[in-house]
Write a structure and sequence with these properties.
The complex is a heterodimer of chains A (about 90) and B (about 600). Chain A has one domain. The radius of gyration of chain A is 22 Å and the shape is flat. Chain A is built from four helices and one strand. Chain A has about 90 residues and is mainly α. Chain B folds into three domains: about 220 residues, no CATH class; about 250 residues, no CATH class; about 90 residues, no CATH class. With about 600 residues, chain B is mainly alpha-helical. In chain B, α9 runs antiparallel to α12 and α13 runs parallel beside α17. The chains are: A mainly alpha (about 90), B mainly alpha (about 600). Chains A and B meet through α2, α4 and β1 of A and α10, α13, α14, α15 and α19 of B.
Chain lengths: ~90, ~600
Amino acid sequence: MIPIIEYLTKHLKPFIWVCCGILAVIIGFSLVVDTSHAHSWVEQHIPAFWSLFAAAAAAIIMVGASWLGRAGLQVRPDFYGCCPEAKTSEEE
Amino acid sequence: MTSSFIHPSFLFIAGALILPFVRGPLRKPYLFLVPILALAAVAMNANLSDTFATFQFMDWQLIFGRVDKLSSVFALIMAVMAVIGTLYGLQVDRAGEHMAAWFYVAGSLGTIYSGDYLSLFFFWEMMAFSSVFLIWFRKGKKSLAVGYRYLLVHTVGGIILLAGIMLRYQAEGNIVFELMDVTHPALYTWLIMIGFALNAAVVPLHSWLPDAYGEASYNGAVFMCAFTTKTAVYTLARGCAGMDILIVLGVAMALYGVVYAVLENDIRRLLAWSIVSQVGYMVAGVGIGSDLAINGAAAHAVVHILYKSLLFMGTGSVLYMTGKSKFTELGGLYRKMPATLFFTVIGCLSISAAPYFAAYVSKSMIITAGFEEHLTWATWLLMFGATGTFIYNGLKLPYFLFFGKNNCSDETWEAAGDPPWNMMIAMALGATLCVVVGSAPSFLYEMLPYPVHYNPFTSYHLLETLQLMGAASVVFFLLKGLIAPQDRISLDLDWFYRSLGRVFLWLVRNPIQWFDTAWGEAYRAVGLRSLMTLSRFWAWFDWHGIDGVVDGFARSVRALGGRVRTLQSGQLQYMLFYASSLAGVVLITFILYQYL
């Protein structure tokens, strides 16, 4: 498995293009798949709905979480005044 | 026990009590044997459908063995998990850690099979008081404090549950554990629900979970990730199905866990946040309460135990080998731990509901149930959370742990490597089950409480999932810099009770201590001095008054005795003289008294 990962790492750009191609094929299939059993109107009428939904959701989650972290949700590890570098039995 | 029902908790408890006496080469076979026997017992019990092991205790009938489809499916996955968890921790030498784990499993299975609230409460508390040792056995500097916080929170939850049980007994006159009237909830309904919800880590009662699971021993976390929350999901499904508030709470959990998992720097705390999020789907399913939703919640609990334990085993292997659990101290480990990477990625795909992996066949049941019940917004938010699950667990965890920037020190890099054989076999077993359940779910569906009329393998569902994963991946790789791990912790609602604890400590150390000192001084200055003065007076009175009377009488007697003593010279003629004189005086006195 390591040689495969190293090969893909060395050929990252072609690998990314292949992945984008696969995604395009998936989106292409989604345009022709039967959506009559879909749960909602938007799924039935907006092309590639789930791609758009996922892209928007992922962006909102990542940007939102990052903003919350910078806004004060994240603090230094010794915030509660306890030993961040505590040795555990595993380390010992 | 009866002739047909074998209680697996009995096997675990007996096995745990015998364990310290089984040493040497017999220890490992014994460790493997007991969970296997318990699994066999659960499998045999699954063929039954009735109440067993009933006992009369005072006015109450205790039911230790209620067997139906709901209890059987949960008991079966718990027993499977006990086998996997014990196998994973075979090299742990401390008998106490295995004992704690087995008592914990016994508590979970006992709760699941309980048909009354009294035995349920007994096993419920057994879970809390045994699992805390799985935190303490890590023996880190934080472990003790984390364990006490865990115990404190669960004790409070237990008290709330007990209060609900007592109020319910007062109102209903029985302790039967069954579906409550959730459409007209009484105070006891809420209390019992809150007691269960605390163990399910329902927001805002969830902070104990990332706190504890991130600090448990590498082996203990594998057990803990499976039992407490899913046992609580079972109790909610049994007692509170259809309670509307659970939909809101479940959705809140699903989203809340996502945000914190995205920000998390510790690999096991990330998984702990992931539990909060995933259990949210189950809680929402229980809240929806339809047959499909309950089936979905049960199915998701089963697959969740499989993939979450696999993920905890993968990250536990990293911790076991390197001693590190932070992204900022790890990275690029695929070169050193390829097998661990492989198994972990299967867990990641399973939790992300990738096609033909575990959650693909369960999460969509809850989503479909939500749409069928016209709970549109709740269901869209659950889908939103599902995207987040893929972001933090399907992409962030494997990318920053096994690929990405290598933050390992030389020491860490040198120590990294795939774990011992038993841990690899346990991960292989978990990974296999994730793929089997995801690819051929009919066996799982047959075990669910209600008949299943659901097919996850439609082309639409397949393309929906692939689109979701594909588009989210693109966005992740474009924006991954935003969520790159930093050596920070995230403030959570535990801040409130930690702050409350600090305020209490401050109060104790400052005003209460001051008052105590002032009171002591005042007592010494006023109370003690006046008391001493009074005591001195009474001592004087005692000495000169009471003792004076007593002692004076004694002194008089002694003086008289001294004088009388001088009369005793020992010479007979004097004795006769004194005696005849005294007799003469007495005689004369008598005669005079008679005639005068």
